[in-house]
């Protein structure tokens, strides 16, 4: 993995970082690179509330905020920004205003690497809108001043259209941090992590690969 | 939240009638429904802090329940309600959770705006 000067991670929901990026974040922090995580919403519209329910539509954001803070702590992130947007409304924000907000973060932090979602290939409308705003902001910088942008993509058609991921990080050495991060988002991951730990114990190759390898597409401007 | 007790919910609905109230109404099948099943038609609706007054309300059905609010010039209704709670801010929270514990519908009524 390349050594970075400053990493900026931008995702719309608490837990978006957990599945495919938390290992990479942990590795950068281990390498002494400062990582800022900007999270646009508090996942207010999450549907996993249980039956019997453990939370309400109104109490969920408070729970997920704490989980996000715990996840940041698990990864070693000391600069967590909660940007105050609302879950499932990001795509309806005024595009230029959202891109400017992303631009302010980029100006302030001057990252050498940004990690976000690949616009158009990230399934959830908030994911695509967040990625698009970040790309729009970076595009405004002169070509020589642009940070690298690594995108996460997982739509069913993504490999057909944008090819294979060109960046693959083996995060095996920090897999325990990744599991701890997943566990921190307990309201969202409870059942899944339990199953996953069992499969890891049994060396299930599919699950090992999913946990240990993180894949990114370098955005080409 | 607790399982709906029809009489109790009706009492809470009556209590909020003829007052200026804020409504949160939402239906959702989740943002990933068509990702996991491409034949699934994804739909949903959401309104937060609709400000209105209803003069009459009714909870109907044998569970999951249906709830209708009749306003001076229209209606609000929700279907599939399974759980309720009056929270610490005195808001009436009603929700329908599916068989896997996922929220499918919410109707909430409050005398103060939702955050």
Strand order of the largest sheet of chain B: 1-7-8-9-2-3
Radius of gyration of chain A, whole Å: 17 Å
For the termini of chain B, the CA-CA separation is 19 Å
The CATH architecture of chain A is 3-Layer(aba) Sandwich
Runs of chain B in which pLDDT lies below 50 for 5 or more consecutive residues are none
| Total helical elements of chain B | 2
- Total individual domains of chain B: 1
The dominant shape of chain B is globular
CATH architecture of chain B: Distorted Sandwich
Please identify which CATH superfamily of chain B we are dealing with: Hypothetical protein YojF
Q: What structural class is derived from the secondary structure elements of chain B?
A: mainly beta
Q: What portion of the residues of chain B fall into strands of 2 or more residues?
A: over 45%
General shape of chain A:
globular
CATH class of chain B: Mainly Beta
Determine Rg of chain B (CA atoms, Å). Answer: 14 Å
What is the fold-level CATH name, i.e. the topology of chain A? Rossmann fold
What gap, in angstroms, lies between the N and C termini of chain A? 22 Å
User: How many strand segments of chain B?
Assistant: 9
How is the largest sheet of chain A built, in terms of strand order?
A: 3-2-1-4-5-7-6
Percent helix of chain B, as a range, is: 10-25%
Protein name (chain B): DUF1806 domain-containing protein
Organism (chain B): Cytobacillus horneckiae
InterPro entries (chain B): DUF1806, YojF_sf
Pfam families (chain B): DUF1806
């Amino acid at each position: 993995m390349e050594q970075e000067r400053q990493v900026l991670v931008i995702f719309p929901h608490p837990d978006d970082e957990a599945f495919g990026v938390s290992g990479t974040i942990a590795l950068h922090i281990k390498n002494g690179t400062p990582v800022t995580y900007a999270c646009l919403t508090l996942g207010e519209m999450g549907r996993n509330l249980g039956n019997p329910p453990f939370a309400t539509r109104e109490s969920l954001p408070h729970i997920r905020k704490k989980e996000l803070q715990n996840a940041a702590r698990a990864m070693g992130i000391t600069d967590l920004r909660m940007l105050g947007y609302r879950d499932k409304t990001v795509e309806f924000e005024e595009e230029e205003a959202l891109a400017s907000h992303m631009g302010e973060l980029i100006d302030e932090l001057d990252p050498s690497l940004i990690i976000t979602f690949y616009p158009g290939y990230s399934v959830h409308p908030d994911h695509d809108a967040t990625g698009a705003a970040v790309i729009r902001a970076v595009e405004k910088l002169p070509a020589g001043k642009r940070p690298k942008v690594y995108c996460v993509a997982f739509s069913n058609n993504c490999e057909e259209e944008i090819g294979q991921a060109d960046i693959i990080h083996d995060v095996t050495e920090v897999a325990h941090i990744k599991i701890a991060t997943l566990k921190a988002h307990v309201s969202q991951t409870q059942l899944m992590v339990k199953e996953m730990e069992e499969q890891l114990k049994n060396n299930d190759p599919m699950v090992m690969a999913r946990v240990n390898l993180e894949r990114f597409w370098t955005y080409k401007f | 939240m607790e399982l709906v007790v029809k009489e109790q919910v009706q009492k809470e609905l009556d209590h909020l009638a003829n007052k200026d109230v804020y409504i949160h109404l939402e239906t959702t099948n989740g943002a990933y429904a068509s990702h996991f099943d491409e034949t699934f038609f994804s739909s949903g609706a959401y309104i937060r802090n609709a400000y209105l007054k209803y003069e009459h309300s009714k909870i109907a059905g044998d569970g999951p329940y249906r709830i209708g609010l009749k306003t001076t010039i229209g209606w609000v209704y929700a279907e599939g309600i399974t759980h309720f709670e009056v929270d610490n801010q005195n808001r009436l929270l009603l929700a329908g959770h599916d068989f896997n514990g996922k929220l499918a519908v919410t109707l909430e009524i409050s005398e103060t705006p939702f955050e």
